[in-house]
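In this section we walk through a basic example: taking a raw amino acid sequence and producing a predicted 3D structure, encoded as discrete structure tokens. The instruction is simple. Fold the sequence below.
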Amino acid sequence: MALVYPRKIDLAHTPTPLQYLERASRQWGRGHRLWVKRDDLTGCTLSGNKVRKLEFIAAHAIDNGYDTLITCGGVQSNHCRATALVGAQLGLGVHLLLRGEEPADREGNLLLDQLAGAAINCYSSEYFVKNINTLFSQWQAHYADRGRKAMLVPTGGSDGIGAWGYIAACEELAADFRSAGIEQAHIVTATGSGGTQTGLTLGVALHQLPATVWGINVCDNAQYFLAKVASDTADWRRQYPDAPELDIEPRVLDGYVGQGYAIASEEVFALIAQLGRLEGLVLDPVYTGKAFAGMLAEIAAGRFQGARDIVFIHTGGVFGLFPQRAGFSRTAFTEENS
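The resulting token sequence is shown next.
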């Protein structure tokens, strides 16, 4: 039986390319072919993995009479930036609840949030963590009092609705695999709110891709994300009871968070610079840089033996690079090209 998708609004430029990293494969692959699914190219300002989720989330909002989206994330949240731009594009109000003190200078994603016209409230990290559910409810009531209907969108757009974004992406990957002659692969993604990993894990099973999905967590720990993928999957089944029954096994590669969320080591910054020179591919220090570094460490440890091909999902995040420019040491730019 064919998989029946809920309605979506076409926002992303898809299919995105599957790019072979020839020089990176020689340098780090240890016999594996390294590929990158260029989901950083889903758009320009409206770019990255969050757009795939928002195609389904925005359609659900409009179909159910919502006129405002309330969501949350860090001050430099890619998801919040994407939501702000989607709202502007579709005529929906957007209210962002941001974790962290408001910086003196607006740059990166936060600047784009403003340019898109989103309402923004910043809260200290401690207050945000303790009170985010209350804040969601209070602001939703605020809009209801003014005759508006606000939909609450979780961090990263990661829930049963957003999961469809990467279920659909797996159809693209199936075509990519055929074109590239990939018979079996490991798929690696950064996981920060769990939604992309959930969608990929479901999508691989639904579309019977010959692949294993690995999430490399950039915050929290493996147990948190195993539980989060299970929770998002349960929400997906609850909201779409006619979807096929699946037996899935999420996998998380822990140990690459470093000092914490959005804090990258010197080694990660150096890797970002090196890959930029080597392949013209730009990663970010919050998500993809940490995940790519973790993937290389796992390759070196022999984790992916048994499959020739490794596909890295580039989830975007370039705008978060600029507020962290101080992390690039002088030596990162003076090393000889590889």
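Looking at the output, two observations stand out. Residues 18-47+159-334 form a domain with the Rossmann fold fold (CATH 3.40.50.1100). The beta strands are 18-20, 33-38, 68-74, 93-99, 119-123, 150-153, 185-191, 211-217, 252-253, 309-314. In the next section we compare this with other chains.
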